[in-house]
């Protein structure tokens, strides 16, 4: 599933100062945590079946350290009974597996600056999106990701052409 923030006025990444080298996106962090809360509630209600006594292993992944910090801060107050969640950067998840993954695109700006999400970094996107055994949620500005050739545009094209197994939903 892709939770598309492109119609939201608050979708943009935080502006960084001249001394900051990393970025964050508060809206995406909020939506990622909310998605995990919805999944946790679905398990509690029996909508999602999990073996008794087992929690789902979840990786929340972001390409920027400030976004990892923002996600970690927001998750610290979330009360998730059926999920074991770890927040990591794209580089830190290399070789890891999980039941579910949530990827925060983070980038969304009027300058079309993709940073680590641009075409030369397709391997990083592959790493981020291939960690989950059962489910992946991408949170981000789909219009921004479609604006330039690259791995995320390819993912969106795939999702559009496979509606029976993929969903792009307005956030």
| CATH fold naming | Rossmann fold
Domain count, please report it: 1
Low-confidence stretches: none
CATH class: Alpha Beta
**How many strands?**
6
Oligomer: single chain
Helix-strand pattern, N to C? EHEHEEHEHHE
CATH architecture: 3-Layer(aba) Sandwich
SS content category: alpha/beta
Tell me the β content: 15-25%
What share of residues is helical? 25-40%
Report the mean per-residue pLDDT as an integer: 94
Q: If strands are numbered along the chain, what order do they take across the biggest sheet?
A: 3-2-4-5-1-6
Cα(first) to Cα(last) distance is 11 Å
Keywords:
171 residues, alpha/beta, Rossmann fold, 6-stranded parallel β-sheet, 5 helices, 6 strands
Question: Layout of helices and strands, plus pairs?
Answer:
Elements: E1 2-4, H1 26-44, E2 56-62, H2 65-75, E3 83-89, E4 98-104, H3 122-129, E5 132-140, H4 142-146, H5 151-161, E6 168-170
Parallel strand pairs: 1-5, 1-6, 2-3, 2-4, 4-5
Describe this structure in words.
The chain has 171 residues and is of the alpha/beta class. The protein has a single domain, classed as P-loop containing nucleotide triphosphate hydrolases (Rossmann fold), CATH 3.40.50. It is 32% helix and 21% strand. It is built from five helices and six strands, in the order βαβαββαβααβ. It has a six-stranded parallel beta sheet. The model has no long low-confidence stretch (mean pLDDT 94).
